[in-house]
Amino acid sequence: MGGKQSNSRDFFRVDAHIPFISCLVPPDEKENLFSDILDKDSVPALRKNPLKKVDISGSGIAFATVERYAAGDLVEMSMVLERVHDGVLVVHGEVVRSQPAGGMYKVAVRFVHLDDRIRDLIIRFVFAREREIMAEKRVGWL
Question: Which of 34, 52, 84, 118 reaches 20 to 30 Å from 18, CA-CA?
Answer without folding.
Answer: 34
